[in-house]
Amino acid sequence: MAGEPGISEFERGFPVEDPPVTLEWGIAEDAAMGLLAGARVQRVVAGQVRLRCKALGGLDIEVNLHFKPRTSGRLKHLEMVRSPTRRRRKAFDDLQERLVSRLGAGVESKAGLFVPVEGITPRSWVCGLVDVTHDYYFQGALCEKVVFDWRG
User: Fold this and answer.
1) In this structure, what DSSP letter does residue 109 have?
2) Which end of the chain has fewer CB atoms < 10 Å from its terminal CB, N or C?
3) Are residues 93 and 58 in the same domain?
């Protein structure tokens, strides 16, 4: 936990280690782009930005930032996506440990909401106004995904 006792670092925003910024929930897209100046950032479509960064204890990952509305929007949704690997279970467990160390144990996600992968149990957390889910899904291939949804 960072900041005030009992307040998770994710309640205020998504902490990025490299570049060293916190993307606060509700930040305007233009302001976020200003914070990320010089970083590996790509505008995918209006209202969606892809960032290559380090987060969650040095994990090199691609993060998709979604701003709503798509024009002049605010940060509402963030997803970390990893393509399939041969060591799927080990990669999932590593990322799960990183999340648990910051968010606590969480709860096992309800059956039927996610793609079942043998031996892997999706988890979810509620962190203030942020819902966090770690699971697998299909997007042409089986991919690992962590979603942060801000309900603010």
Assistant:
1) P
2) C
3) no
